[in-house]
Amino acid sequence: MEEELKQFDFVQFAMCDVHGTPRGKLIPREMLSQACRDGVGIFSGTQYLGFNAEPALSVKAFQNFPNGIMRPLAGTVRPLEWCSAPKRRIGAVLCQLELGEMEKFEECPRQVAQRQVDRLAKKGFKLKSAYECEFDVVRRDNQEPLGDCPVIPYGNLDLMDRNLDLLTDMLNVLRASGVRLEYFFPEYQAGQYEASMQPQWGVGSADDAFMFRYGVRSYCYRQGLQATFMPIPYPNFCSAGLHFNHSLWSQDGHNVFHDPTDPLKLSTTARHWIAGLLEHAPALTALCCPTLNCYRRLGRGFAPGPIYWNIDDRLCTFRAKITGGNVYLENRVPSSAGNPYLVLAATIAAGLDGVHRQLAWPSPGCPESQEEVRRLPGSLADALEALEKDEVLIEALGGKVVEYFLAVKQDIEIKHFQAFTADDVELVKQREYYMAVM
Fold first, then answer.
1. Whole-number Å distance between alpha carbons of 365 and 361
2. Cα dist. 257→182, 248, 327, 357, 413 in Å?
3. Is residue 308 within 8 Å of 202, Cβ to Cβ?
4. What's the sign of the alpha-carbon dihedral 227, 233, 238, 244?
5. Tens-digit pLDDT profile for residues 65-103
6. Predicted pLDDT of residue 369
7. Which terminus of the chain is more exposed, N or C, with fewer CB under 10 A?
8. Are 417 and 426 in contact (CB under 8 A)?
């Protein structure tokens, strides 16, 4: 790996924190041998800071600001074309945090996701997945949306053509940085776009989504723009999501969710998996919609509210997509603010519980009786309460993971907003808190 890294003048030793923000250090080429051999020291609580880098001091493990060691992970080196230049080549390598004596910091979001992928492997399954990343782009000088127009631009290539040079240059930079894109198009709001990633095995989809978001923000900033993955930054904006498409495969290449003999083409495993997602949907929401701003999205527009599943339904919570022998499920809960690693991990944990307990599979479609309709939590506080009560997800993800996540959200984020109650004032404060780093 050291020789691979030495093609660059500088290398970012990078980790994804609880919010999906890249954190780490920049290493010059002449120090790479030492960095690869000894690792790079950093505050061990770096991955569980607030959005303004507030330390989660309610967590005893972080109270004395102990150091951890970043260790580069094989197979994760990539160029960063958005911050490279003719006189400097910048690369990045994803890192695992260790606490000393080669003890892994198991609460790293990427490590949390990898453990769930490993759980699947022990049952003979492989995960294939991809994200749909939605985001908004505004001009930094006046905060007006890019490509402002009087009509809804959804899928309108003529309107997208007005900024095509900038957009295709950005996409080329991302592709050259190893981000595997499938398609790109304008969404339901001026300046709002969606990029779909190519399906990847294991945690590869989360790696791509993490680097995509980093690259989009950095590239746009250099063009005098601001890209944000805040779900609703302004009152008149449509919400942005992070839909997670996934399927299970056997080791010999069979789609485990597909059953050609079933009328719906769904296997028993798929039915139990769906039941698990539905069972844990309230707790799942905390990890998929992890900011206060996310709850301006749920239950509005095309975002889910009632908890149900259906086939090819853009309003449901969990959507089955069936095309011939290709069957996969879409988790529509995540907002654009979701951490892709935690979304992946929580989705697996919930689905696997359904398979393990063989949970009863409900009929597709939203229940007609209002008494039978369960709804996703209406606030971050309610979602966190559901997560605290979900013993299955806590055990699967790890007690410390949930403890640290709750500390950041309850002791830092929610407390930060307690003084702001008026809706318009609170949205302004949310924008000040989230938008610059999301």
1. 12
2. 22, 6, 6, 17, 38
3. no
4. positive
5. 889 999 999 999 999 999 999 999 999 999 999 987 778
6. 66
7. N
8. yes
- How many Å apart are CA 416 and CA 49, to the nearest integer? 13
State the amino acid at position 67 in one-letter form: N
Q: Residues of 147-167 as b/e, b for ≥16 C-beta within 10 angstroms?
A: beeeeebeeeeebbeebeebb
d(CA 352, CA 418): 37
**pLDDT above 70 as % of the chain:** 99
Report, as an integer, the average pLDDT of 297-325.
Answer: 92
| Nearest in space to 277 (alpha carbons), one of 331, 328, 316, 314 | 331
Give the DSSP H/E element, type plus range, for residue 173: helix 164-176
Token digits for 205? Answer: 């989809």
pLDDT digits (tens, 9 = 90+) for 2-30: 899 999 999 999 999 999 999 999 999 99
DSSP, residue by residue, 230-276? -S-SSTTPPP-BEEEEEEEEETTS-BTTB-TTSTT-B-HHHHHHHHH
Helix (H, G, I), strand (E, B) or coil at 370: helix
Distance between CA atoms of 318 and 366, rounded to whole angstroms?
11
d(CA 391, CA 380): 19
Report which residue type is found at 6: K
Determine the Cα–Cα distance for residues 302 and 147; give it in Å rounded to an integer.
Answer: 22
Per the CB < 8 A criterion, the answer to whether 50 and 56 are in contact is yes
Q: What is the pLDDT of residue 370?
A: 64
